[in-house]
Design brief:
This protein has one domain (about 10-95). It is about 45% helix and about 25% strand. It has helices spanning about 10-20, 40-50, 55-60, 65-80; strands at about 25-35, 85-95.
């Protein structure tokens, strides 16, 4: 998960790259929220099947995507219980102008 999108979070680096792309008047708003899921299984599906992690799992053995998702769900339930799960999330929202 260290790669995009989760690994692309260094605001200064992103600002430099946006500027290098010819943009100016770059501003950033950082928002911190709470992500809520009904169950550990929902979190496991989101990460294993809805992020670039899916490609990593499938590159090793696509037939085991469901098994990997199940294992993640089991571990999350073991650590956090079977009920709803909350976690902190953060987003950097960039606005820029390209003349």
């Amino acid at each position: 998960m260290a790669r995009t999108p989760h690994g692309y979070h260094d605001v200064a680096r992103i600002q430099q790259e946006v500027a290098a792309g010819g943009f100016s008047s770059i501003s950033v708003e950082t928002r911190e929220e709470v992500s809520r899921a009904r169950s550990p299984r929902d979190v496991a599906i989101a990460y294993c099947q809805g992020t670039p992690l899916r490609s990593e799992i499938e590159a090793r053995d696509a037939s085991r995507l469901g098994e990997a998702t199940d294992k993640v769900a089991e571990e999350l339930a073991r650590r956090f219980g079977d009920g709803p799960i909350e976690g902190k999330i953060r987003a950097h929202i960039f606005t820029a102008i390209r003349p």
